[in-house]
């Protein structure tokens, strides 16, 4: 998902039960594809190939499988920002959020035993929007804390951070977007701004689990993390809960980050181990870890 981009701080990004089948499934006019004909065929092919390759494997294996399909795809920010809030499907270009959203949506669809692009876009919307429903800019789950709570409640993901070695809790007020509303053109609309303020009010002094950067080098933690876990890098920046997302890929038992890198300008498996990557990132305070449910 690109959910939040601070244009004044390069590379800082954040982001969040079943619902009835959505009416748009039969109407591609309600979906903004990057390239409709190519995308629908490619999605069907990815799901069909995935069914044969990892159809019987756990959800995390599916997440990693699809993530690796996007390696070397270009890093592009702002692909979700349009004049009106529309379900955007782009499997050609990614930022850190849209890479994770797409990998989860593909994995979830395959976990349901489905191989149609229509089922994929259904799940992509279900993950990206509050309650799975699109109702303007503020209905998108911009903050990762919001994404986690909403999707955990609906059974799509699990926040496993508190179960892991080195876990702790922190308290933070999350209001970055309305503090910097000039960065987000959609918040010029008074109704969307008011709604976003209301959402943020639920995250005043928000308490959530995390693992400090200094503890991510613990060997027990490395063993507990699984390939395909989603890593949410928590931020020291005021008002911001999470600044970057990626997916665990272990190399010789050591967790690395598969992510859409604004530095490399493409999707990569970072050659720097996760704990070293965090040590070098002065704005990072630690990590949260989420795991797909199916």
Tell me what the structure shows.
The chain has 294 residues and is an alpha+beta fold. The chain has 9 helices and 12 strands. It has helices at residues 36-54, 59-69, 96-111, 117-128, 144-153, 176-179, 190-201, 219-224, 274-279; strands at 4-5, 13-14, 31-33, 87-89, 157-159, 167-172, 206-212, 230-235, 242-251, 254-261, 266-269, 284-292. The strands form 3 sheets. Strands 5, 6, 7, 8, 9, 10, 11 and 12 form an 8-stranded antiparallel β-sheet that branches. The longest helix is centred in the N-terminal third of the chain and has 19 residues, at 36-54. It is globular and about 45 Å long. The chain starts with a strand and ends with a strand.
**N- to C-terminal distance:** 20 Å
Q: Describe the biggest sheet?
A: 8 strands, antiparallel
- Give the low-confidence spans: 1-26
Number of DSSP-assigned strands = 12
Please identify the oligomeric state.
single chain
Give Rg in angstroms.
18 Å
How many helices in DSSP terms?
9
Helix content: 25-40%
Which descriptor suits the 3D outline?
globular
Determine the strand fraction and express it as a percent band.
15-25%
Q: Helices, strands, pairings?
A:
Layout: E1 4-5, E2 13-14, E3 31-33, H1 36-54, H2 59-69, E4 87-89, H3 96-111, H4 117-128, H5 144-153, E5 157-159, E6 167-172, H6 176-179, H7 190-201, E7 206-212, H8 219-224, E8 230-235, E9 242-251, E10 254-261, E11 266-269, H9 274-279, E12 284-292
Parallel strand pairs: 3-4
Antiparallel strand pairs: 1-2, 5-12, 6-7, 7-12, 8-9, 8-12, 9-10, 10-11
Helix pairs in contact: 2-3, 3-4
